[in-house]
């Protein structure tokens, strides 16, 4: 047996047999050759003494390095040749097949050969030797006759079998029964070997042999590995794992076939998917050797260190199936570690070396002293948290890292845990044993090396509460269709007296688990659903609380007869002797078992006692034939299970035709054809031919530009309209309609139409058919259902209801009409319609997708008459929690910032609603409980997120979960990312600064499900709000409050002064409400306000100057976009555009707005004239939608322009409510005081007051400007200025009149 090992230092080679070293020095028969191989001379073997058989293994050792072992090899000694069966004399018909048996002991079978008449038999396509030694002769000829014997030649004296004579008889050519001479038998082979399935059949006619694998035809031609041998046997060369399966040999003689089967099992020796790698480590560290193997049967894995088996312990553990973990390395752990995998067909080994490195010598420089005051601040059953103070040698300690060494008391194997970042002075040691004493010491380390160790600290973990273990042997069985009995036994580890049990149960696929308290060891739960799967589990309780739960057991309740009848039974009269029944299964949840069929009962309406019964399969339709002409029949259907028949539907009736329709000639011309052109489509509607006695199978629609023969579409005979899509705009199409049946197509009806131009979008894609009424002889098409409504019931169910105008007012159906409901969604665009039949005026559509818009329409059919499809109704199903995780999750490092990573993802493919947020989970331990992962919430419209301040050179794992209004979806698979090893020294200060700033200002959507961490602390990588931000926020709040109070006081004083001493000014001001006011600055120049005119609705009328206390004010249209705004004065163009652009910027950059109180203008209005105030808004403006990003109020003009109004002074008001409409603002500048102003429109209705609407301004004027504006507004009402203002307005109106006249 060969063995060789290589090393720079020559290794010492030894051999083991059955696990024990062989002493080869004093052994005469077994010798060690110079290359390390083992030579065995004169093998000894007898029935009772087999010293040389066994498992051999080679061991190589180098004293300074360690030991490795080889894989094992099994040595067996072949026995003496012997025959288990010998050939027997036989005869064979010419052209048929024969088999001569010669079975020998299996290990010598390859040494068998055959002789005919004492001459060697040469094997070919016709003569073949099986692996067992038997000889097959196919298509026998006269030359095959003779004496045959088989010979075993195994190196010694040949051994001969008895001779047997084979006679070849002439073929009588009379039919003979088909039979197998040799059938295939099941085989087990190792990959790479060959497998032969013998299969020999005889009979007349001569049979043809073919093979199948797993019921699929096996094609041998063209495949080098598959060979068809003599007589039809199959050989598979170089067997692979995929070749396993059931092989069938089928002998086919034309009028008769026989079949034989055999299994091929394929075994695979162990192979390594991942081999251990060499590891270099320091003492006290933890290391893991990885080893991943495959094979069939599944290999067992053991670890060997320096040739000796590794026994698992507290410090040597097998993790993740086959990996070896060594905790707290010591120097003696050095050496060679080998992973040995073994199964029934082989073994393999792979090794790696562990080298313990000495600590690097410290560089010159001061080393830190021992850390001070090491204490255990938190002690639990399985973890301990340690804290300490900085060493006395380095009180700051910002650049120190710490190593914590710990071990069980009395064990000299220390483990080490390092702090995660410099300056950190606490650590949590996990995975400890309960009620165990551990010894801890802490060592500080600076750039020169490790310093002194702290004084050892002994800490004992807490004892674990003794809770009960799981209850063994839990079993559940259904005792009836509505009850299940569950039994169990007392827990093996009760840990004290069991007080009671809690039995939990839940319907499979649901999430609402229920429980019941049980005192004994069994319980029967009643009131369950029939034929439904339930899961059960048991938890035992003692005085400490609940113990470990059992595994779930699942059982299905027994079946019963269905509890509801089939749904939507419809009848369709096919001809004078047959009626087609169609129905839907009983509602879900009422089947009470597996539906095995349906029972149909029918009778003549005139003879109710004479009932015929028909039982069909599980199909949802049945054609009842052999009926009488012109006779009314009633039908009902019931569902069947193995338990019996469920309730039946109500009787519904239909009458067979008096006579069958004629299909000896083509249909006549349709009675009418109407076309309705749209931009890219034409809606075609028609009525059937007047002669209803000829069969119509369908309609053919031909169309094309100028000729109807370019395209042809065929539709069902029930259809009455069709929309031709994908046409060219502004094109002349010719359309033809022909009815057809099996004889051919009828006479065509022609119509032409011109599609609309592109610019005409008035009625694009409307499915309303308004064809003019065309009288046709009875029976005419039925009226389509009306009032179709879709009521949303859940995320997958919508109820469709409708009315039928052809029914009486009570909408009661008394005849055999039925309704067809169809529905589809437009996503994806090519979705096909689904249909269902109903016999009532409603239908429940189930199985829809969540958060999806569907369209529904209904048609009615009565006998041979059908309606067109109704108007469509639309409904969007409710949202559901996401059912798939976010996809394409990637993690990349941010350029220049190695501590910052960027997470990118895509929304879930099954979002089932609008995604409102995401939660990113990340951790350094992929196996940690999910509540131990750090979370980062992200708003729903973002697909990327930055995470900062991560630890360098550390693997992180990331998962993402999506949220919509219904809750959280599933998590994505964990994505691993290792942070870079080091950050560039020139960028590090800046990166850290900008990173912390960015983190503080990062917008985070915490979402409805977010709970803050306990103790108020942020996540490990979050950043707390700085004191500077808090102070700034406080200053802003106080300042806004003070400004608001001062403004209110000034307004109050101003109102009081004007009320008591300026009555005259007030009256004048109220008269001039229809005029234009202005703000007065330092300059005496008067600038008119900007006047915005909607030219399409402009109408000039005389200005009413009378002191009417209730002038009727009309509205000024407020521009909706820049195209609607037209300046009156051309000289003001540039100012207007400048102001408009500045307004857009101010709105875009202003996150919050203040409202202008309209009540400030009431200071100049009489109480009986509330409508003339300039702050009053259109009532209908409240009905307009408001956009939150760009506040806008759409005020629709109902009357031409009649007056202009100037707004009151803006002042601080309540917070802006985004639900209220708001209007864009235009800045009006005085020479030295830029003031935000707004165009407002007032409309009045005599004698009625309207509530004032708030006006949104981008930002309030500052304190100084507001005061000046208030002072200026007092002087606005001087008599001479009013006169000037009125004169100016009259001139302006004349200019406007001239413009419009021109």
From TrEMBL:
SMART domains: FN3, IG, IGc2. It is a single-pass type I membrane protein. GO terms for cellular component: plasma membrane. GO terms for biological process: cell-cell adhesion. Residues 969-1025, 1066-1088, 1102-1174 are annotated as: Disordered. It comes from the Eukaryota. Residues 370-464, 470-560, 565-659, 669-759, 784-880, 885-982 form the Fibronectin type-III domain. It is found in: Cell membrane. The lineage of its organism: Eukaryota, Metazoa, Chordata, Craniata, Vertebrata. InterPro entries: FN3_dom (IPR003961), FN3_sf (IPR036116), Ig-like_dom (IPR007110), Ig-like_dom_sf (IPR036179), Ig-like_fold (IPR013783), Ig_I-set (IPR013098), Ig_sub (IPR003599), Ig_sub2 (IPR003598). Residues 1-76, 81-167, 172-265, 270-355 form the Ig-like domain. Its main location: membrane. Belongs to the immunoglobulin superfamily. DCC family. This is Neogenin. Gene3D superfamilies: Immunoglobulins (2.60.40.10). The chain crosses the membrane at residues 1032-1056. PANTHER family: NEOGENIN (PTHR44170:SF14), PROTEIN SIDEKICK (PTHR44170). CDD domains: FN3, IgI_1_Neogenin_like, IgI_4_Neogenin_like. Residues 1016-1025, 1119-1135, 1148-1174 have a biased composition (Polar residues). Residues 980-989 have a biased composition (Basic and acidic residues). Keywords: Cell adhesion, Cell membrane, Disulfide bond, Glycoprotein, Immunoglobulin domain, Membrane, Repeat, Transmembrane, Transmembrane helix.
